[in-house]
Write the structure tokens for this entry.
Amino acid sequence: MPGFIWFGFALRKPVILFRKLSSDSAWTIGRVLPIRNSSCFSIGHFFVIALTLFFKDRPVVDVYRVPHVFPALLCALMLQASVPQHIVAQTGTGSSTGIVTSPGSTESNPAELPNSPASILSRSRAMASHAQAVTLLEKALPRSGSLKPWFLLELVIRTASSDKWKESLGWAELMDVGSFPEEIADASVWWKSEALRQNGKPDSSAALLLSRLETGKSSEPAVYLAYFRTGSSRSEEVLARFDASFPSIKHTDPGSYYASRYLAGLCAVREADWEFALSVLTRFSETAGSYLSDYQSWASAYRAYSLYRLGRFDQSAAAFSLFLDTWKLHPYGWQAAMTGALASVQAGGDPLPFTDQALNRAPNGASYAEAAILRATILADRKDFDRAEAILKGVADGSATKSRTAFAPRALFMLGEIAARTHRPELAEQQWTALASSWPKDPLAEEAVFRAGENWYIAGNLPRALSLFTRYRQTWISGKYLDLVLRNGGDAHSRTGATDLAILWWEDLVRKYPDSSAIPRAYSELVAAYRKKHEYEAAIWTAQQYRNTFPEEATLDDMDAEIATLTKLKNGENPSSASLYVDWTRASRASTSSGRALGLRLARTYLDDYSKRGEAAAVLAEIAAEMPAKTDRLSGPEKNTYAAVWSLLGNLHREDGDYAQASKDLLTAGTLYASTDGERAAEALYGAVDCFLQNGKSADARSAADTLESSWPDSVWTRRAILLIETTLKDKGV
């Protein structure tokens, strides 16, 4: 009896179709397993298998969470398993005319042994009861001999026909289909693959079918079609092999030919091979004609979606629009409209007509709500907030969908976003906290509370922000926004004067989220907070951790200088000088004009503490070494800086009793001050006069005094210098 594939159509679940072979409504695709030898003993087995394509990553509109309908292919296959003729000859079965014994006949050949494997196989096939046939075959299996492949195949078919797929797989796993006779190899592979698929092992099923196809021995299109149903890879390669194996099938069996195009296209969709899916589905749509016309609509939908996934959004939108116009009552209309809207957005078109169709074609309240949210999102992006809010309120309170759907939290969340965007923080908080209170387990509840706190944090209302941040910490102990909450909450505490709380939040952040993008800022803030609290050891340790963990960010924050300052503070140094030291270091010390000015300030700070005279002298000497040999090109401020440095150095040497060096330093200072600050120049020269006298160089002292008298006769330092010389010389009797 010839075998046929009948294609039907199912929307929600596989539907078993029992039709006569002559049914006008059936799609005749071609023979599946033809009788190979008219003189062999054979039997036909009718069975119906639903081929439903379930995709792991939703083949259409995968951006939506709502399940949607997929096409189902319903196939009725007749498989014919044959006993080899040499077995028949041995048992005496068959006739010289080539007429085989009817599978359902109880007539026996007198020459056939009543308990031979062939006889048992024949009797089992004549049994109407699957259970009785299985019992008979199972009992005789150990002595089935060379007919074991036929016994196993019959057991698989009988148990599968009873919908005992687990038991069927148990028998199928005993099959070594690679060594089975070729006449039943395709049937055996098909049934074993189906048993694997029915038991939740689609990958193993696909691998088995592919291994058979790769041998190049399969002569049944049904094996290829089964692979496309189950497989999720290499669809293009397998279709090419199909065409090579059946070069004339387009003319001899056009139904199978076009079925292979369609199924290969769906397989390509499942494996996300969008280019091939687009190519093969386009060819199917253009050439299938009257064959499988019921599937033209689905091919059109998948083709449009392939264009979408390829980023060809303008073409995808046009394809979805054509689909919606052509098949106005199609069960896939809602999904097509939704994806068409997204494609239109990406293409820069007008998506609102698509959202209108999605609302009109929504099969239930949840789908309507999802379409409404998409429409509201588009309106909000266009700043049409009033219309967006009106739509969202209907979804949030259930008035637009007769009752609240699972999309009510999303609607509330978006209402909060619109309120925040339109500078209504109180309303934003109201919407977001209402979401968290009404749907505490919803994934959006967590984000809603975070956003409410963040909104107030950005607006500068730190107490209210902290209240919401605290609520977040207490509710979501390991929440996905906790690192940001800890960072911003710590900053809010710091800015409101609660340094201790700020430290606790930032410490928690560093401990729990070492890889967070918020950590560098937290480290920096922690260092500053510890310094503020005079906890210098903790500050140094944190700064070192910062430098070791995030070297680039730490360099930008000049952590090396900060560590040096903290070390000075730890050792009891004046905070002012410690800060100046950091600033001086950051300004490249004495190598820059700004650095020299800061160094001068630092030296003066050091001089306030007698124990720091050495550090002061070192800083001053470093700056003095940078003065050029010719100073005439120096700016006024630069001259003053160098003059002050030499003046301080001179006085340090003067205090140490090194009058010779002191007089040189002070003369240099006076020379530099001469063109910018006469009074300070006079003061420096007075110091030089004193050093000369202390060193017994009265002539040099008189010379310096003469300079003072000629240049700044009215200066108090001039009068003091003259008096000092007179007094000193008088005391010495000169």
Summary: Residues 636-655 form the longest helix (20 residues).
